[in-house]
Every structure is written in C-alpha cells, then in structure tokens.
Amino acid sequence: MTTKSDTRTVTRVTIREVAAAASVNASTVSRVLNPATRHLIGDEVVRRVLAAAKALGYRQNRLAAALRGGQSRVIGVCLPDIENPVFPPIVCGITEALAAEGYGVLIANIVGKIKEQERQVEQMLERRVDGLVLATAARQDPLVRRCILDGVPLVLVNRGEDGGQVPEVVNDDFLSMRLAVAHLVGLGHTRIAHLAGPQRLATGLSRLQGFQIASQQHGVAGSVVVEAAEFTREAGRAACERLLDAHRDVTAIVAANDLIALGCYEVFAARRIACPGAISVIGHNDMPLLDMLNPPLTTLRIQHREMGRQAARLLLGRIATPSAAPLRITLAPELVIRSSTAAPRAVSRKTAGVGAA
Amino acid sequence: MTTKSDTRTVTRVTIREVAAAASVNASTVSRVLNPATRHLIGDEVVRRVLAAAKALGYRQNRLAAALRGGQSRVIGVCLPDIENPVFPPIVCGITEALAAEGYGVLIANIVGKIKEQERQVEQMLERRVDGLVLATAARQDPLVRRCILDGVPLVLVNRGEDGGQVPEVVNDDFLSMRLAVAHLVGLGHTRIAHLAGPQRLATGLSRLQGFQIASQQHGVAGSVVVEAAEFTREAGRAACERLLDAHRDVTAIVAANDLIALGCYEVFAARRIACPGAISVIGHNDMPLLDMLNPPLTTLRIQHREMGRQAARLLLGRIATPSAAPLRITLAPELVIRSSTAAPRAVSRKTAGVGAA
C-alpha cells in the first residue's frame, strides 16, 4: 500500500519545472501566474507558460500568494445555528456570490456563549480572512464592537445591530408587519396579537415596532403583544399559552417567525382550538414544508438567498473601499397566503349565544 | 472618518515587539508560539513570552505557520445542497468536532456539474486544505477518483462510493429497511412497495437492496419497486403516481427518503386517498417538522450530527496516518413511529363489499 502523503509531496510541481518546460525564467512564471503582474509579460510567453503549467498539473499555492499579497481571498461566515432553516439558504447565497469572485468561505457555527464566539472569530482572523459576515449579531454585540475596533471588514446579515456603524443586509420587517396586519384587517380582524421574538435581537425589536406602527395605522384598538423568549417552537408555545390565558378575545396572531407560529399550532392542537376557524395565525420567513402543515401556514417570505448574495457583495465592496459609509440594505418580503388565516367568526353570532356552533 | 484597513495595518503587532517586551530574541518567541518547539524553551521564559504576546494583542499568522509547517489546519467540506435538510446537521457535527481540535472549515455548496465541482475542489486544494469531507459522492465519482490520484486525505459522509478505497461514514441502510419492513409486516401488510432513490447514489442503491433483502426475509411476496429520479418531493410525486397507477393493491410504501414520502402525501391529497386508512407510508432521515404534518410521518431517524462528528474524526486520523486502511463506519438508524402507518384495511371487509366504510 502506498503512502498517500508521500505521493502528494512527490507529485507537487514547482514553478521551476514550469519555467523549464516553457523555456523561461522562474520569475517570468511568477509574473504570469499573478493576475496583477501578468500584463508585464508578452502574450506569446503568457500562453506558453499557462500551457506548461496546465500540462504539468501545476497548482498555485494560495497561502503563499496570500502572504505576499496581504489578501487571503477567504471570507469568514459566522452562524448562530445552521440547523435553523433560515440560515442554509443565506449561506447558499453567500457562497454562490463569493465563489463566483474566486473567494473561499470559512464557516463557523457558533453555538456557545460570547467567549466561544470570540475564540472562533479569533481563529478566523489568525487565518487572515479578508472579512467577516456575521449572522449572529445581537442588538448590542460585543463581538461586533471588537471587530470594529480591530478594523476587520464586516457585514451583518439577517440580524442588524443598534450601533449603525456596520453595513447590514436585512429583511424589511416594517413592510412584513404592514402586509401581515393589512391582510388580517382586510379579513375583518380587530383583536390582533403579536407574539414577539426576543427583544435583544434586531429582528425581534423591528417586527414588534413594525406591528405597533401597522396596528396604529389601521386603527386596530385591541392589539396585544406577548414576547417569546427565543425564536423557537417551545418558546412560541409558552408565549401562545400566556397570550390565550390572558386575552380570550384575540382572533388573530402575527408570530415573529414561523417556529413561534408552529408553537401556536401545538397549543391549538392541545386545546382543540380550530385554526383558522376560531383563530388565525401568520408566520414569518417561509421555511420549508409550511405548505404541508395542517392548515398550511400563511407567512411572510423573506429573500434568504438574495440576502446572502447582497451581504457577500457588500463585504467585497467594503474590503475594496474600507472607508465607504456603512450601507443598510433592506429586502422586501412577500405575503404568502395559505390556509391559516380566514375571516373571524362573526361577532353577531357570538353575542347571539350560538356558542360552540 | 478613519480608514479601517489603515487602522488594522497599524495595530498589527510583530514578533519583534513581543520579543522586546519579553526581553528575549525573536527566534525564542517563534519557538514558544509553535507548539512543536515550545518544549525547547524553559517554563519561565514561555510564561513571559505568552504574557507579553497577550498583553500586546499579538495575533499569530496561521497562513505563515501553515506555509512553514506544511499544514493549514483547515478542512474542506463539499455539499451537494445545503438547503436539503439532511446536510445542515451533518455540517454542524463536522464543524463541532473540527473546531474542538483547532481546525477551520472551508465550505463549498456544489450545485453545478462535475466541471464546477472540480473547479471548487481545485480552489480548496490551492488553499492547501489538509483534507476533504465530501457529502457529494456518487457511486462512481470522478472527483473522488481524482482526489485519490492526487493523494488528498479524503472522507465521504452520508453517501459512499463503490470503489471502497475511501473511508466513509454512512447510515446503516440495511438496518433502516429491516426496521421499516418489520414494522409494516407487524401491522399486517403484505403488499409493500419501495419508492427507491436514484440508483447512481449509494444511498439509493443500499436502501433498495436493504428493502429487497428485508422483504425476502419476511416472506413478503408482493413487494414492488419504483425508482424516483431524485431525492425530491417532485420526483417522489411522479414515482408515487406511477406506482399507484400500476399497482392498485399496494397497502404500504417505504420511501427512500422523507422528501419522496412527502411527494406521496401530495398524490394522496390529489387523489383523496386516506393515509394511513387506505395506504401507509414510511419516510427516511427524520427531517424537521415531520411531526406536524397531517398525518405525522413515520420515518427512520438517522444520526446526522454524529455522522458529521465521526467523519471529522476519521479525516483527522487519516491526515495523521495516511497509510491506514480505509474504514467504513455505519451508524444505526432508529424507527420513529408516528401516524402515517397503520394496519391495512382487512381484506375480509374489502371482499365482503363494505366499500367506503
């Protein structure tokens, strides 16, 4: 059995060998292989060198190039939870846009506390990433502060930060809530509740503010807010229980994300509450399989992939021009109407004592 | 406004500065910072150098260390589709196990054809990854062949390869099928169909073979196989339609994955076929939200995360000992019984003409 690592070392082709095959100096080969200096060499020689490199199977060493040129052409991406279905399509958009520009993506799934986050980001910086895309930001984020102080090119995606000093690509949560409330008001609802996300995250805050503004605009007097501790099914269930215990007259719920809405479904099932018959619910994000639930969930579809693509482009721009003002890009969501929203039971029937009918 | 990149360059601390602060030579600092040579230096000096490095905010340059030491401590991970819910938890397991060992993860989401796959893997090799985890393998995979020839340390995850020359970590698909068929036979089914996955992938083939063996063992005479072109809902729907058109007596379906089972749900809804009343169905993988479908889907839960963790460990072992024989690790699945499987309608009732009762 051959030793793979031996094979690998033995077959590694050097610049000298390429130079010999193309009958030029090694320095000429270096200049040809570097896009920044290729124009210094005549076309005929460039062609000959590239042909020799290809024929010999020469592989550029990008680490050496990164050390010389000061750019690794690698970007670090930090995620709070790759298993939350919001993030894979964002990663997909980021890698797609960066691969097209010849950039690699170092990924970190940062599940731990701030210390662990710092450790992983520190490792990325030791690997000389050219910049970072953070999907992990809280509204007050020590890691973001630190990257700013360190002068690391940085873009936030999906979740923004309060400081406003960092470029970000996020969903237009105000528009989301305007679309959600308008849909419910159009159906005839007047007692509408918002199951808010955690207020330490920008998405939690902006959806809550958006809900309050939209409720005011539509003159919805009976709007109620209950905060879920996390963007999860479990937290959604707990928040929904508190809501229904305290506010029996609510006929519609705008959940801050789909998982919170799924927590509502669990409560409805446990309490035998008909949806949308007795109560309507709207999610947020449009994660996979919502169309197959019972009932299929009405939700706001966010542009996950485009968010990732835009974040990648914004970061490349930032690396090229670090002094540019930090842009904030918002992408428009789309209301996807399925079967979890319907007109409320007529009040007249209720007051007429039809009861369980 | 300050220019970030300037700030960054200015604040970068050198080994010389650390040496001056610790009153030692620069070469001593280098030896202390390299785990392989640290033992050459006395404990007191090691402590002084590390304290000075920390106080000054010295950041190691891992690119330079990688060039010197020949190891980048970065692993490349190639995925066929990060949006397929099988892969995020696998990535999670890989990054978790590698981060614990100080390794970074370069990720590529390889959606294109073989040329694009080769281009992305080539870039990873130019970045001098120490090894690759491929979740993209087909049974006959040119990319795997090429990595073997290139002597790149390599581990396959989730999908194996026919050659058997590469270590792999996969689900025990034979056990999956044994559990599925035993469950259905236990309920009284005798006309059982398999909606197979694409046979160019190892998961497609091994689940089919597992189904055939399990059917034989249980003496199921009336087993039928129809192949889905892809592991997707759409392909599952098409395959289910073909199956039901050709074999009206089938009472249970073992789908090669959850998405194919969801395709069956779509056909059942369109044709008003009751599940599990008229037909039972079992999925494979246990992707998120199956418990909230109507009916909740019975499935085989695979150990996604553990698969990722094992693949990472196997690769690190491979890098340390390239000549070791290629292991194949299989992980045991677990049958998760929900509500999409039930006893078939009694044949006696059927023949007695009770009809729709």
TrEMBL record, chains A, B:
CDD domains: HTH_LacI (cd01392), PBP1_LacI_sugar_binding-like (cd06267). SUPFAM superfamilies: lambda repressor-like DNA-binding domains (SSF47413), Periplasmic binding protein-like I (SSF53822). The keyword Transcription applies. SMART domains: HTH_LACI. GO terms for molecular function: DNA-binding transcription factor activity; transcription cis-regulatory region binding. Keywords: DNA-binding, Transcription, Transcription regulation. The keyword Chloroplast does not apply. Residues 13-69 form the HTH lacI-type domain. It comes from the Bacteria. InterPro entries: HTH_LacI, LacI/GalR-like_sensor, Lambda_DNA-bd_dom_sf, Peripla_BP_I. This is LacI family transcriptional regulator. The lineage of its organism: Bacteria, Pseudomonadati, Pseudomonadota, Betaproteobacteria, Burkholderiales.
